[in-house]
């Protein structure tokens, strides 16, 4: 059959794998990313003993590393060099490095780092694939294939060129840049001395190759030297630039030398092409072809060959008769069926330079070419000509031009005497004038332009032609004088002259009847009729056309920088005219003008027409091979379907390579289509190692993408051609009868509509071990024309492999299935034996761990292209006690499988079978593989880059390196947060937007064996200062106040206090100011700035600024001081001090109604009384929240609630000012304790507790908390309410309870009320009051102190006796009353409620003690809060933790009261 001409949609095939190589060699990366410059990947051949130099050029390398490696045993790589160092024991291998210059950006862009792999004295076993790689992401790779021939090889020596062909002058004439002229001599190309990389001159290669061929046809010589047809471009003087189409990517490197030899020989013996060929149409049936002989200096032609080919006949063909005689001939008779295409050849002697071609068809489009020829060969065609014969009509009459008016005579008559004016202005045939003409003729302007107008006003015409108003005056003929203003009219003289000619009535009329017929996608036939006005004067026609809306393919031709180009014009002597080079599916506008010797007519009417779209190549019918259907049948994913095309684009391949690599084998099978394309591939230069791809498989270990990638275009052309002319595979092969020594086979013919001349049955006896081996040519063959056959003379009891292929004159198909049959009656119980695919093959261990094996294999070689496979992988451990014939099995649809949960350090045996709709194949070869031994995970300390400077907001890279078998799961934690996790041994994580709290880097590894391991590294984040402070601080005028700012920064910042925001007035240490700084306040990089103002005076300003700065920035925090009222103690201070036994020397601090601590701050004798003064100042409130926020240490916090501290002197000197400030802040915000607590039994299990709001700040109370418990128990219960009463439940009648209440808000709490003891009985009422300050109460306190001391001594003695002293209560059910911001307290200090043992103290006494002075002498008597744990005498609260946001967790009985936010 003829070659299929319709393009088939197809499959891209193994290009997916090839692209894995192309991706790294294409320099398409962004400028800031590395890429490897494109290099030739064709095999390079060396002789044994020669030195090998492989060059790799890497651009934009940056901080990446280049290494050379060699691929061994299929996929395994051996690294040879890293950077500048060789890491192999082979001393013959080294690397040369030439770094790219960085001072010149243009050089950097075009050049790059050069890395040369040197192999000294290459040996035979050095042949293979070498790779240059860059450790970018993804890894870039460039492949180099070398082959080595023996040194004593008898192959012919290097081709000796017969001429030193130099075509530099031709290159220069064709615009080749001087830097590329090295390619304009053949010896430079062969010797590699062109002086520049080929990639830099590729755009000039078409001109260079055209000059090299020198217009001589070297194709016969190339064919003689067996250069494949697709590599003969150079022989024709053409250069094929690799395009996006996959078929353009083919390799002709192996034929370069013989091609150059043919060219060198040809320029010496072949004639050059004739020059300046032309065609003149003489009528409907005749044309004249003319040319000039070739330039001298080349072999002379012996004759010329004129080729005339019919392109299109626009009218039905007419009968034409004639014969070829004496070099002038005609076409044979033809009819409509066989007319197109028609070609004829005319041969004339070398002394002729023209020929008449007769007997042509009217209105037919012909292509004409002329070549020179001698005994050695012929020239190339200089260029082809196209001509349209005329329609059958009468001969055109002779041209008659109308007469012009005598303008020169008019000028003479009117006195114009200057010769220049007569010649240039007064002659209507003058087409151009200049400004000097206007200057010289200015004196005769009126006479000249009056004569030119010839008494006719041409203004309307001039206005239509777009002349400026000033120049229109010239058109009227009424001009009195001209000056420099009229000089611009020189530019419009052509239009002015055209209007004159129109007014003289000498121009031809407008063409009429404009029409367009025979509209094709790329050409159309334009018709018109001449006007009756001066029709006999028309010498030519000018047709103009342009696209209205250019299609995508037209934009490059008709638009430049999105600016629409003007009309294109073409000249012809008569209608019709063929408009060529049109764009499909585009609307055009066309008009025509007639031309005579005086000018052109007005434009004809505009005609619009639209070219049709190029019809898509008609899809093959259902009974032909449909590649798209094949891809769908084998379940190619939709995303990979664009690769199912023989004309697929490389851009698609690059985009889909990594995604579709797993479907490579299915794509390849569909592309091959069950045909044997090996003969075509051999003919087109595909090497033997890649021929297996032409039959749909990867059987050769050498058939790697690196080796076969240069031949992808060769293979694709063969596949596309073969599916149209080769027979397809048979289907449904089966044996329906098996007897002793005979087998009857039946099959179905190919489904494609391709001629099948015969079927060949191949069979061969095998044993159970060799039955799985694929052999494409078996020992025995039988050819038949039917679809059934009986094989006889088989040996009974023997096993046979049988398959069937189809044949025709173009070639053969591939086997679609194989039958493995025992030629014995009854050997196959099922009766019918169905053909199944051959066994999977090439099992390989891809990777392994202690508990897993990854196995890969190739699919069956003998299978129908539309077969969809699943695979069954069977495996078992060797040496186990289990049955040796029992295998584990797993099924997969891929050609790879990872076996998990295996036993470490164990050998396994494995094999694979393939299953399709007809059955299961034979087993593949077996594979033995060991799992690795198991050992626990080990992880190194994390490596962090950059090492020294990690900046907040920047990027850092963390490397976790772990070992272990199986590979461990590696986790990266940053400050306790899991960032990245992967099963790997080297995990690189890039962390963006680094924050200042990312200080702890941990790598954690666990593989399930042994103990997991974690290593950590502490890093410091360089960061700009961040300052936090209390924005508003209340201070009493004249009092001391301490301002604090917490700074977080690294490196160490500069810290300073300012009085103004611009830093012009710094605060100086000394006098009224004391400045202190605490380093590493809360860890590395944190600082506490303290400014103590010893006596605040508002006139000095109420704003201070703490400023911090380092290399990364600055930060300024403003603190505003608000004037507060003096600390008004709600008791009579002097009475409180007297009751508390403040010494007489310190009583001056208790004068009036407020405490003046400044009087006792620096007096040693008052240190013992400081705790008593603090008790009076606390005023019944708990200020520990404020103190904790200000950094008061735990050992001094008891002062903040009016309790003694153990380290009195230390707390006084350093922290007393801060505590005083908290007293000031809390005096208006913290409530006092509730008043008059009462309890009334309501029922046998409930009681109602009531109280009154506190005297101090009652409006600030947000919540009350009630505590109660039976006497003698350590655990207490609690409940919250916002009201002044609450009902408590769960009481037992007859049990004695004690109860206390506390008031609080989001700022803090009061102290507890005195404990109230009551025995629960119905109608039992107990009350306790917390009164305000009075002298009477104070006196009562004195009495109570004495009694309390007695009972305290008894209580302590009882506690020690019962071993309860210093025993803390359990946290569960204990009493807790924390304030919202108390989470900063460091020691978990406790709040206690004093107990009256055995109920000996009644509520009133306790109330008096607490309500008066909130304690006893030196803390020995305390009706409310004590700083120490006393056995059985206090209720302990929960320790306050960082999770405490305010009050304790809500209780269900409080109605869902929302706790305070921190």
Summarize the structure.
The protein has 1462 residues and is of the alpha+beta class. Helices cover 17% and strands 29% of the residues. The radius of gyration is 53 Å and the shape is extended.
Mind explaining what this structure looks like?
There is one protein chain. The chain has 1462 residues and is an alpha+beta fold. The protein is 17% helix and 29% strand. The chain has 27 helices and 71 strands. The strands form 17 sheets. It has a six-stranded mixed β-sheet. Strands 62, 65, 66, 68, 69 and 70 form a six-stranded antiparallel β-sheet that branches. α1 crosses α17 (650-660). It is extended. Mean pLDDT is 77; it is low at 1-31, 102-110, 154-162, 315-340, 616-623, 1127-1131, 1328-1346 and 1358-1462.
Features:
6-stranded antiparallel β-sheet, alpha+beta, 6-stranded mixed β-sheet, 29% strand, 1462 residues, extended
Largest sheet: 6 strands, mixed
How much strand?
Answer: 25-35%
Q: Stretches where pLDDT falls below 50 for ≥5 residues?
A: 1-31, 102-110, 154-162, 315-340, 616-623, 1127-1131, 1328-1346, 1358-1462
Gyration radius over CA: 53 Å
- Number of discrete helical segments: 27
- Main sheet: strand order: 2-10-9-4-5-6
Q: How confident overall, as mean pLDDT?
A: 77
Give the strand tally. 71
Broad shape: extended
State the secondary-structure class: alpha+beta
Which helices and strands occur, and which strands form pairs?
Blueprint: H1 15-25, E1 35-36, E2 44-47, E3 52-59, E4 66-72, E5 76-82, E6 85-86, E7 93-98, H2 105-110, E8 113-119, E9 128-134, E10 140-149, H3 168-173, H4 186-191, H5 205-213, H6 219-224, H7 256-269, E11 275-281, E12 287-292, E13 303-313, E14 343-349, E15 354-357, E16 364-374, E17 377-378, E18 385-388, H8 407-413, H9 419-424, H10 435-440, H11 445-453, H12 459-464, H13 469-476, H14 493-504, E19 512-517, E20 524-529, E21 540-549, H15 555-558, E22 559-560, E23 563-564, E24 568-572, E25 577-579, E26 587-596, E27 599-600, E28 607-610, H16 627-633, H17 650-660, H18 664-672, H19 678-683, H20 705-708, H21 712-725, E29 731-739, E30 742-748, E31 758-766, E32 780-784, E33 788-791, E34 799-808, E35 811-812, E36 819-822, E37 833-834, E38 841-848, E39 853-858, E40 870-877, E41 888-892, E42 896-899, E43 907-916, E44 919-920, E45 927-930, E46 935-939, E47 943-945, E48 956-965, E49 969-974, E50 977-983, E51 986-991, E52 1000-1006, E53 1013-1018, E54 1023-1029, E55 1032-1036, E56 1041-1050, E57 1054-1058, E58 1073-1079, E59 1086-1093, ...
Helix pairs in contact: 1-17, 8-11, 26-27
